[in-house]
């Protein structure tokens, strides 16, 4: 037996070094593996939260899946020459597939949660339709690749109703159609949209609520027949929820966003509408109500009260405060305890003296701004979601409307809208002044093109210099007012940023492995930029699209006009739709019901008949009544003169009976109480002449109610027939 070699008790130093080296390298390997694993975990978590995985098990399987390359080739690498439109969630390109088929390819903005949801929603709803409907734009397929989301639709040669109605056809630059829609086309489009909604509401199981009926979502085929498109905001009505409805998509979206923002809880599914009514006042309605006043100076005061009241409503609830305990800086203007108790607006208890003194001072404007400032960092989503669909940050249509109100109330002495005594003489100037700018606005309506400042310049040149001086003075006032407002906000922000910086610097004393540096860097850049902005305020100017930027001294820069703002708004078409087409009962995360579509249809009908936008704001002095299409049509109905609303471009070449039917029907659809609005089935019957229009409330009718009403109604019918 060989003797066993004993294990060396004291290993040699060489062995120890080798042992130590092996241990250290093994630990390092394990450590790096753990770190890599953690990094991988973090990376996948972060990226998953940005884009939720596409559900391949949905009805989408039946849709054609295109490859990115295929669509890239079809659209010539998404060339600008193939661009046919831009919406809130992405750009649309014309493309030709390998088989020669003409298609419209919608390339959704990447890294946008909203686009992602709209993409999924559109595919789920359109892809889930059991059979296609000729009144709905066909969804041909989609592509999900390399972080890109694309949807392929049938191509509609005459594009959208928005372009057909508002594009300046007399000017050939970028002209789409050389023809103004005649009455027959308009009536057919109204009927088509109504029938498309009838299909969605009555023939789909579960019913589909479109949720975004507006001219840019009505596409026209080669014969100008309409098809409804854009189901990004649509909802499926859940069975058994007839009374309250459920908004799955918004629940999901609000949930996600709340998770991100960590603020303001979404009310649980099943919360009755009434509980939301109290803290919600529709801004557009506030304008409508204000504008419908007959007396213009009274109207002014109403606008002032309502605007502020409405702002306070929105903001007080957004800020998470008790609705009735409005505890805002602008509280001196907003203490109506009962404001939210019903759908009718209750004006705040101001006496005229108080108001006139407010109107004449900047104090009022500052108060309005304070309400905003105070809450600008508060709730950004939820109810506020509709305002912020464009995702463009702080300035969107809320600012636009505020600006507009500001323009109406700020230089009260300058604004003839409020001045009854200037009356007809002013009106003469109105038409003279408005023409070139109006045209400019409409030219710029084309969503394909960026705003064209040259045309504004042209418009300016056409005006005589005297008028222009007065106008630019007025615009400058507006401009300055906004600047002051914004500077206030900026200085507040700068202070806030400073505090954050100090806190951050303190915090960064803790070992941070340089990870915080990138955040600090971007913050510092932002901070520097903000300070710069405040310092260089005299050389800065403000634009809704670009925010504050260095002043360029061109003539068009002086054009701080309603036209410019109106155009800015029209470039974010979804904002316009949102602002003026959305039903008052729908608050962004609420219960979207069929009657919300009916309300939007009502606005759409008025827009089609009149050829005007719902909120038509021009720099030129014009009656506020006319600026707001809905309130104007209500007041015309009240005075028995609804045909005044019909598009002047049609001259007398329209069917008067059909036109008054459409306007009355629209007014019925625009009733504030959803249950009073007609069902889509009835609307189609009314349009087809198979049913009589329901009795409109007294406020929309020149005739007295009850028995007398029916007599006068017969009379009207007789005169129409
Ligand atoms: N199938 C199509 N055929 C032809 N043109 C189209 C088609 N789909 C969209 N377009 C054009 O592209 C434009 C943008 O459409 P998109 O649906 O992206 O946005 P939108 O409806 O204008 O705004 P948002 O998506 O914010 O509601 C439309 O106004 C229309 O001119």
In summary, what is this structure?
The chain has 721 residues and is an alpha+beta fold. It has helices at 13-50, 68-74, 113-128, 161-166, 183-203, 248-261, 274-277, 283-291, 296-318, 352-360, 362-375, 397-409, 423-443, 453-462, 465-507, 515-535, 562-571, 573-581, 594-610, 624-627, 629-638, 656-669, 680-688, 706-720; strands spanning 64-65, 83-86, 90-96, 102-108, 139-145, 148-154, 208-209, 218-220, 226-228, 235-236, 540-543, 547-550.
Identify the notable features of this structure and list them briefly.
two-stranded antiparallel sheet, six-stranded mixed beta sheet, disordered C terminus, alpha+beta, 721 residues, binds adenosine-5'-triphosphate
Structure description:
50% of the residues lie in helices and 7% in strands. With 721 residues, the chain is an alpha+beta fold. The strands form four sheets. The chain has a six-stranded mixed sheet, sandwiched between helices. Strands 7-10 form a two-stranded antiparallel sheet. A hairpin with a 5-residue loop joins strand 8 and strand 9. Helix 8 packs antiparallel against helix 9, helix 9 runs parallel beside helix 11 and helix 13 packs antiparallel against helix 14. The radius of gyration is 29 Å and the shape is elongated. The termini are far apart. Bound molecules: adenosine-5'-triphosphate. Keywords: ATP-binding, Kinase, Membrane, Nucleotide-binding, Transferase, Transmembrane, Transmembrane helix. It holds the Pfam family Pkinase.
């Amino acid at each position: 037996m060989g003797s066993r070699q004993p294990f060396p008790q004291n290993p040699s130093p060489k062995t120890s070094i080798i042992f130590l080296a092996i241990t250290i390298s093994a630990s390092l390997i394990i450590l790096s593996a753990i770190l890599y694993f953690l990094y991988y975990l973090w990376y996948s978590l972060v990226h998953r939260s940005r884009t939720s995985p596409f559900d391949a098990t949905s009805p989408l399987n039946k849709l054609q899946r295109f490859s990115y390359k295929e669509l890239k080739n079809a659209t010539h690498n998404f060339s600008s020459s193939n661009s046919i439109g831009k919406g809130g969630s992405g750009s649309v390109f014309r493309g030709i597939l390998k088989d020669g088929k003409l298609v419209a390819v919608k390339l959704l903005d990447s890294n946008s949660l909203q686009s992602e949801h709209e993409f999924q929603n559109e595919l789920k709803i359109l892809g889930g339709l059991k059979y296609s409907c000729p009144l709905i734009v066909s969804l041909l397929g989609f592509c999900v690749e390399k972080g890109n989301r694309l949807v392929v639709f049938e191509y509609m040669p005459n594009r959208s109703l928005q372009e057909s109605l508002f594009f300046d056809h007399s000017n050939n630059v970028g002209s789409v159609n050389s023809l103004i829609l005649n009455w027959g086309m308009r009536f057919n489009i109204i009927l088509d949209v109504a029938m498309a909604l009838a299909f969605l509401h009555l023939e789909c199981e579960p019913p589909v609520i479109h949720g975004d009926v507006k001219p840019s979502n009505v596409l026209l085929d080669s014969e100008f027949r309409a098809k409804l498109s854009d189901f990004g905001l649509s909802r499926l009505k859940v069975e058994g929820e007839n009374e309250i409805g459920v908004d799955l998509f918004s629940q999901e979206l609000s949930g996600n966003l709340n998770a991100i923002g960590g603020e303001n809880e979404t009310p649980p599914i099943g919360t009755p509408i009434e509980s939301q009514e109290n803290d919600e006042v529709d801004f557009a309605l506030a304008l409508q109500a204000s504008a419908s006043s007959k007396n213009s100076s009274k109207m002014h005061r109403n606008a002032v009260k309502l605007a502020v009241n409405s702002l306070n409503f929105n903001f007080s609830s957004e800020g998470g405060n008790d609705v009735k305990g409005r505890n805002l800086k602008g509280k001196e203007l907003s203490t109506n305890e009962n404001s939210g108790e019903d759908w009718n607006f209750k004006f705040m208890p101001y006496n005229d003296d108080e108001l006139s003194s407010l109107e004449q001072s900047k104090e009022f404007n500052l108060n309005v701004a304070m309400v905003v400032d105070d809450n600008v960092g508060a709730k950004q989503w939820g109810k506020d979601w509709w305002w912020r669909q464009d995702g463009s940050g702080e300035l969107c249509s809320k600012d636009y409307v505020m600006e507009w109100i500001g323009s109406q109330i700020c230089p009260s002495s300058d604004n003839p809208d409020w001045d009854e005594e200037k009356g007809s003489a002013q009106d003469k100037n109105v038409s003279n002044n408005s023409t070139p700018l109006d045209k400019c606005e409409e030219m710029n309506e084309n969503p394909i093109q960026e705003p064209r400042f040259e045309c504004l310049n042209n418009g300016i040149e056409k005006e005589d210099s005297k008028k222009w001086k007065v106008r630019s003075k007025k615009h400058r006032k507006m401009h300055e007012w906004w600047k002051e407002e914004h500077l206030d906000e900026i200085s507040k922000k700068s202070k806030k940023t400073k505090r954050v910086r100090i806190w951050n610097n303190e915090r960064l004393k803790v070992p941070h492995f340089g990870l915080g540096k990138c955040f600090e860097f971007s913050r510092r850049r932002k901070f520097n930029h903000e300070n710069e902005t405040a310092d260089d305020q005299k050389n800065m100017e403000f634009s809704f699209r670009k925010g504050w930027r260095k002043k360029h001294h061109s003539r068009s820069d002086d054009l701080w006009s309603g036209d410019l703002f109106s155009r800015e708004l029209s470039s974010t078409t979804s904002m316009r739709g949102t602002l003026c087409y959305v039903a008052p009962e729908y608050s962004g995360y609420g219960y979207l019901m069929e009657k919300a579509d009916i309300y939007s249809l009502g606005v759409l009908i008025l827009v089609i008949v009149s050829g005007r936008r719902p909120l038509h704001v021009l720099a030129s002095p014009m009656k506020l009544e006319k600026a707001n299409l809905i309130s104007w049509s209500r007041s015309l109905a009240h005075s028995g003169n609804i045909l005044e609303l019909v598009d002047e471009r049609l001259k007398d070449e329209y069917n008067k009976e059909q036109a008054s039917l459409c306007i009355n029907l629209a007014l019925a659809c625009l009733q504030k109480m959803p249950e009073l609005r007609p069902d889509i089935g009835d609307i189609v019957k009314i349009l087809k002449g198979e049913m009589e229009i329901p009795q409109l409330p007294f406020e929309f009718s020149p005739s007295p109610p009850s028995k007398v009403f029916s007599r006068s109604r017969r009379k009207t019918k007789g005169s129409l027939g």
